[in-house]
Specification:
The chain has five helices and no strands. It is mainly alpha-helical. α1 (2-44) runs antiparallel to α2 (49-71) and α3 (77-94) packs antiparallel against α4 (100-126).
Amino acid sequence: MLTKSVTARWAQLILEVVENIGLLVIGVATVVAGYHEVALMIGNGKVTLADLLLMFLYLEVLTMVGLYYNSGKLPVRFPLYIAMVALARYLILDIKDLDVWRMLAVSGSVLLIAVAVLIIRYGHVRFPYAEDAATRLADGKPQYGRE
């Protein structure tokens, strides 16, 4: 029994170290990619909508890493937001090369993801997790500002 708990603690510690290293790598890589994008915009002397959407993607990834690092939880909505922005960027960049059906498929995908976000938000507000409900009852305010 004692060795199992010691082993479990070591396994948990190793997983936490690997998780923190992974988060650090993702964060640093995102900052470096953002720096390169800003340098490219300065070099080109202009900022396009595609550049802004890419910067927004970088910020969303950094927000997601920060949330996960601080709380240990990752809201499902953040990857969905990133997917919507990535698909919108794809549409903007490749609109001249897309046929009608592919354009409709990508647009429909964005719409489906948006509906999924709404359903998830509704479910979270209507049926909160036990710890969210306890927090809400303790201070009387919603846990998230958008509720």
